[in-house]
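Hi all, long-time lurker, first post. I run a small reading group and we've been trying to get comfortable going from sequence to structure in the token notation. Rather than ask abstract questions, I figured I'd post a concrete chain and ask someone more experienced to write out its structure so we can walk through it together at our next meeting. Sequence below, copied exactly:
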Amino acid sequence: MLKALIGEIPAACLFAHPAARRDLAGQVAYLPQSDGVDASFPFSVDEIVAVAGRPRGEENRRLAATGAAALRRRSLASLSGGERRRVFVARTLLFDRSLYFLDEPAAAVDQASASRLYEAIGARIAESRAAAIVVAHDADSAAAHATLRLRLADGRLDVERLRAPFATDGEASA
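-- Answer (accepted) --
Happy to help. Here is the structure in token form:
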């Protein structure tokens, strides 16, 4: 679904015009469910995050926020699935966009790391006044950091407001 929304695969009536897809591409950062990078290719974590073209201090901040700062000098091939995920979430958050599509950002990580990733995503969204659409199978973990929860079950879409936009934990709506 996310690939269709961002124009990576064809979808009837969704961003059908090529100019609309190009305009959208400059406003959207996308984290796929699988990073698709061949682990045997000799990329370092430094090289993966450098793709975003951000200053080194910004890279350090995003890697630290996702718990991946200590991985900077390691090769991609040496990382576990959870470590890779933290690196790719950090890289996605380096892009200055108004909309972030994140497909299973906390896949392959433990509960503490998942919470840290969702906090990093929330901080990025709040600081840039952007929006994020997160697909997550662990809905409770993601909901602890979300504004709205959209749940598709039994052919129905349920919408639940969880907190005010850009609210801190102390300001969560009742």
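A couple of things your group might point at:
The first strand starts at residue 28 and ends at 31.
Residues 122 and 145 are 7 Å apart (CA to CA).
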